[in-house]
Amino acid sequence: MRVQTDGLRSGEREARATIVDVAAAAGVSRQTVSNVLNRPDRVAAPTLERVQREIDRLGFTPHVSAQQLRRQRASAFGFEVNPSGHRRMGHILDEFLVELTVAAPSDAGHLVAFAPDPDDVLTAYRKTLTSGIVDGFVLADTRTDDPRPPWLIEQRVPFVSFGRVWDQPELTRWVDVDGGAGVRQAVHHLATSGYSRIGWLGWPAGSNVGDDRRRGWAEGLRELGLDVDAPAEESVQDLDQATEAAESLVTRLLAQGRGDVAVVCASDLLALGVMRAVRHVGLVPGVDVGVVGFDDTEVAAALQLTSVRQPVAEAARTAWGLLLDPELEGPVLLDPDLTVRASSVRDPTTAAGGP
Amino acid sequence: MRVQTDGLRSGEREARATIVDVAAAAGVSRQTVSNVLNRPDRVAAPTLERVQREIDRLGFTPHVSAQQLRRQRASAFGFEVNPSGHRRMGHILDEFLVELTVAAPSDAGHLVAFAPDPDDVLTAYRKTLTSGIVDGFVLADTRTDDPRPPWLIEQRVPFVSFGRVWDQPELTRWVDVDGGAGVRQAVHHLATSGYSRIGWLGWPAGSNVGDDRRRGWAEGLRELGLDVDAPAEESVQDLDQATEAAESLVTRLLAQGRGDVAVVCASDLLALGVMRAVRHVGLVPGVDVGVVGFDDTEVAAALQLTSVRQPVAEAARTAWGLLLDPELEGPVLLDPDLTVRASSVRDPTTAAGGP
Question: What is the ipTM of this complex?
Fold first, then answer.
């Protein structure tokens, strides 16, 4: 029995046994052979053994070849779920995972979620890869000295990253949001709203993301001809101290004279500290002190807090493009938007008050 | 060449060509054969053709048999990502997806995320299943007339559900949280805190989850000897009207006399409406009007709102148990906890104030 295959690269091939051959040889239906392959627990032992014997004898394999298998099935990519990152990043990672799933090309992408041991993430990447279930990875929550990009490059595994690979500038397979541009936009918005002393509440220097956002604040002030040294600035390592840091920051800004005072924050959680501090000293956010957060979380919506919004759905679509579309070149840096609410509007009649 | 295999159900088998046989026959290294199988684009065309010819001639397949393949690889389960559900349920679904990934047994479970067309979810289930990438599904966000459980049962596909399958009471492969018990606990907590008129802000009758939570409120009142008809009750279809509904509810409760007034809500977003309404009429949450939400979202933490917390990590572990542990019998109904904050504590010195 010889058949001609339509492979472009191979010539004439040995015919391979089909599921019909196995069914005929074992005297069972095609469905039973399928059950033996896929749900052996549902097949009676003697039948299972008989079919299995014919499968082995005929050299039947459900896939013609691994190469054809690869052509048939959609690609799958691994996505690391990291609970501390998912908590720390105010649901941006959750939102990214949802949008990445939604944006998956219907016949070209599955997403496999896996959770590494935080002390040894590479083992989980290696295991997920060798399990054969994924063809590559989508990284998020990139950081300095991130062991993942160099390892993936060394293993020649395809990947794309949501977030810059800060210490490998030659790498271009990433999409990120220009946080500095978002903060600069917030500074300009506050100036337009009539605030002239605009402080910064961020994280200690040394985090790429935090430094990038702070740079946007300083640039915004310079562009407006404002003195970067005059406004107050605070940083918070421990989020439990956000309210205290916010209170001292607001107090210092107010000491330069009432009114015209605003604070831009590196996150909505820091902005929450400012909102509380403003209320503690008997003032009203927006009316007395402008406040802007970052990430436009549900907390921002609940507090009527103006916040910088990352275009997460666009980032997810871009990530798939960088993985699958050879025409799309990286890196891609997306501009965030500003969601304006009562906390940065001086006239309280133009927006609803906070809770 | 004959070798003895260690299969329990099959006897002596034909020896199968190994990767070493193919490499020797084609005169290439083992790594090259591996590349042909996994990364054919990296292999020069003449080599690719030669190796492919030997693979076909020797009947080599990288997997000994589909059955052994199944024994080797971990199971994979599909999880539907449904953006509207993820938005509506205040991140409980995001949290469940994260915890489900974390709780996956390291050698027995992968999680494949997929996003169906909302108008035709079954097609995506069918496609994900026939792609061969998953062995079953974890459902969430179950609803009345949910087409998924009957279809999966008919297809004999393993699945477990986070959330009761309300209209198939005979089905036991679910884990859920006893929302009614959580609300009853909230009512008892409010009574202990000194509130004696406890209203309810929920959704219109007819949603299983909402009705279950409301039942907990009514039961709690009865257990305390309080009259269910005396306190006010409101429901909100459109969340944009939550503040208005909350305001009329609070007004009605206060009309029965000041003090001792509290409202339990079916969600944190409804509780946010109550918090705003309380402040709008010049009162202080907790001190003047007790407020309790449901789901303990980041919004609850930000607003200092007492809220019912679902044990999502435990639900995720239980879901894996129901899928993989034949000893564990379903259904499993878990008790939620109450996270107590300033909004339900009458003495403001015992808890920090809201923002």
Answer: 0.76
